[in-house]
Predict the structure of OLC1v1031050C1.
Amino acid sequence: MGKCKILVVGGTGYMGKRIVKASLAQGHPTYVLQRAEIGLDIDKLQMLLSFKDQGAHLVEGSFSDHQSLVDAVKLVDVVICTMSGVHFRSHNILLQLKLVQAIKEAGNVKRFIPSEFGMDPARMGNAIEPGRVTFDEKMVVRKAIEEAKIPYTYVCGCCFAGYFVGNLCQLSTLVPPKENVIVYGNGHKKVVFMDEDDIATYTVKTADDPRALNKTVYIRPPENILTQKELIEKWEKLNGRKLTKITLSKEDFLAPLKELDYAQQVGVGHFYHVFYEGCLTNFEIREGEEEASELYPEVEYNRMDSYLKRFL
Ligand code: NDP
Ligand code: GO6
């Protein structure tokens, strides 16, 4: 039996390009949606051409052309969508409803993996405004998938290292602070940090795995469950220098929320849930749910001390 065919929607994005890479690496016939709207975006076009050089098939289509989406999904067994959900980029999670309609109509897709890859929206019913929009929208997409009886896997449960590790969990920067580091509360909530390439590897692994059918797969590998304090210590050890810790209470963290722009308000809300509530780890993974490193013990996921070495 050959490897299942995978269509990546959102393939030139931050997560999408890694899904394309992982799909090719795992030997899947890999299809990437080439949207008409990219127009003069030369970087996207060049990236798509490089995917083709690596063996991917480019499929022309557009979210404003329903038939083109139906035709695209008819080519494959699995659709993985990495639509933007990042509020300082081109967040568009609800656009996936069009993809859900196309998959429903096409009728051939054996698995749909929607754009999730973060906090489990099903557990974020009490999230604060305006950041909760992320979870509300992802839940709207889930509801449409389940109502259409489309087989699915929801991949979630961790923080992207790119947004959370290099900066030692500081907002508005992606590199380590030089002198002072803001510590959220006592810095002791357990967080899950993952190299995005490993998230992509696990995601593609679930695509044809019956154990992941109609389930949520949490990415929570034991070695990458760390508190903010532990992450800071790893950096200090590597860098040979201590940082000055500035403890921030949850009240002080949330106080300036209203003065920030919308995207940052969303981000602050998300940081609040991750670092003050510990929302990634304050529940057990139960019957009917799976954990990625247990399903795929052969994957040698990157540890965060080696990830941090890139910043030395
Ligand atoms: P990006 O911002 O990189 O965008 C991904 C793709 O979305 C783009 O490349 C583009 O596809 C597509 N897209 C954007 N706007 C439109 C539009 N108007 N019409 C059609 N397609 C559009 O997204 P990320 O990779 O950063 O995010 C993917 C997921 O990961 C989201 O669900 C997000 O919430 C989650 N996330 C989780 C994080 C975590 O720490 N856990 C951190 C960051 C994101 P194309 O390639 O066709 O141009
Ligand atoms: C990451 C961010 C970083 C925001 C999730 C503002 C959805 C999730 C862990 O896109 O808003 O500086 O789960 O100043 O389910 C963004 C979002 C983080 C990055 C959160 C995210 C995480 C989205 C910032 C900033 C580094």
Remarks:
- The CA atoms of residues 61 and 201 lie 26 Å apart.
- The chain has twelve helices and 13 strands.
- The two ends are 46 Å apart (CA to CA).
- The longest helix spans residues 262-277.
